[in-house]
User: What shape does this take?
Amino acid sequence: MFSNFDFDVIRRALPYLFLDGMTFTLTLTALSGAGGIVLGTLIALMRLSNAWLLGRIAALYVDLIRSLPLVLVIFWFYFLVPYIGQWITGAPRPIKVGAFASSLITFIMFEAAYFSEIMRAGIQSISRGQPAAAQALGLTYSQTMRYVVLPQAFRNMLPVLLTQTIVLFQDTSLVYVVSIPDFLGAASIVGQRDGRLVEMYLFAAVVYFAISCVASFGVRRLQARIAIVR
Amino acid sequence: MNYHWNWHIFFEPNPTGGGTYLDMLLSGLWLTILTSLCAWIIALLTGSFIGVMRTLPSKTANLIGFCYVEFFRNMPLLVQLFLWFFVLPELLPHAWGLWLKQLPHAPFYTAAIGIGLFMSARVAEQLRAGISSLPRGQKQAATALGLTTAQVYIYVLLPIAYRIILPPLTSEFLNTIKNSAVAITIGLLELTGEARSMQEFSFQVFESFTAATVMYLAINIVVVTAMRLIERRVAIPGYIAGK
Assistant: This one.
């Protein structure tokens, strides 16, 4: 079964796989995770605000994105971003957007919908007395959110946010559909060049598995540590 | 925007020779539904089996269930599909591998099984949560009545557990439909795949993706409405979901 398994092809590809591919994947995960959480929190605040229109817009956006497959959303943004760029900058033709920027925008916009649902649950889990007390102390809306509500919501939802980030890490492999060389894309390129798809895909699977396993184990440990005893 | 809109494109003949562009998208829609349903059946069956194993008193059964769930949860779906599609035929004995590679509709079978197993780990986790949310007394009372372990599960625990987890199962089914789009990478021409090839043939990017978006939304609405009806039918009076 493994008689003609060529481990050397993996060893030779290691620098390219990790320095190019994995760096892309991890940077994309970290930046779109951070961006997604920020944008997601804003969407959650919009949704919970008293302004009816803002709430409707946020709900519509979240429901729309959450009912579409990520692959379709990647295609949408891949073709849409150049036109949006043209519209913003007023350039005569659709602007060129790099692979990284394009996928970063896609994942921030996509993940924000999912993060916003997590943050909404986090904000709603805080007892009414907290914002009421903050208001009684004379804090404005933004102060109440910044100093009282959001820090607690973040803390309560941290394990869920991190789990969603692990999902995001796995989802970044889907940039494959627009031929962007992330970790899996790099493995695929090497595998096709050397005719060694079996070795490369198995290796990629092992690496994804190891990273996700370690990360989810870490999240479980963290969850046990930061749980507030009530 | 200097994009050339052409909404009549859907009624123009497509270059593959099989009717209009709309027909292309509809055949993709059909394949998406078919793939998702097959995958969902596999996910429900295997997921239920594994989910039950994880709640059994046996340590071995528990460990097997745990390993199964971790195995399928910690790899991206895309990588899993590649493993089934490109790697498995090479690792099998030569004759079997050849048979697999020559199988007609290989992308469809691979997608149904691959997505099915990927989702089964999630179904298993939901079912485990459902079963462990039941009060201990249920199992004890059933055992006291003289039911065997299998009977306890079939007649007492599972009927309630499935009802409890119906709402999360609905969203897992929606996830299955969304995940079927990943099969585009192994050459399955489901809805996203057909929208993509329509875009490549006709250069009408936004029309084709808008149509696919509308179709996905329609599937979603149908599934959510149907599941809500089922939820109402099977609700147990006295529980929160019941009347």
In short: The radius of gyration of chain B is 22 Å.
